[in-house]
Amino acid sequence: MTGTRIRLAYIDAPEARQTCEKAGVSWACGEAATEALASIVDGQPVSCTLIATDVYARQVAECHTRVFTLGREMVRRGMAVTLDNAPHEYGEAAEIAKSMNAGL
């Protein structure tokens, strides 16, 4: 899947140019999410397992580096929220982000 745009499974993350509000303050959450994903990957090889194709014909996959499951780590850092179909590990990651008041 080299060079293919992939939507990470089980999460919803802000779009690159999206802004969010937290505690009444507007912030560039999309830019922060993009930077977080780049930090998680950090130049490592990424492998993905295709799970589905969404209604917009995008490939949806769970992707990993040697260290992280990308979507789950995005949730743990507070840069994405879990979808209803997410495995329980994603919920645990969301609880960590919430307890630290991280990100979204």
Short description:
By secondary structure, this protein is α+β, with helices and mostly antiparallel strands.
Task: Describe the protein.
This protein is α+β, with helices and mostly antiparallel strands. It has a single domain, classed as OB fold (Dihydrolipoamide Acetyltransferase, E2P) (Beta Barrel). Helix content is 31%, strand content 25%. The chain has 3 helices and 7 strands, in the order ββββαββαβα. The chain has helices at 29-41, 70-76, 88-99; strands at 6-8, 11-12, 20-22, 25-27, 47-53, 59-64, 81-82. The strands form 3 sheets. A 3-stranded mixed β-sheet has the order 1-6-5, with no helix packed on it. The chain has a two-stranded antiparallel sheet with strand order 2-7. A two-stranded antiparallel ribbon has the order 3-4. A hairpin with a 2-residue loop joins β3 and β4 (25-27). The longest helix is centred in the middle third of the chain and has 13 residues, at 29-41. The model has no long low-confidence stretch (mean pLDDT 92).
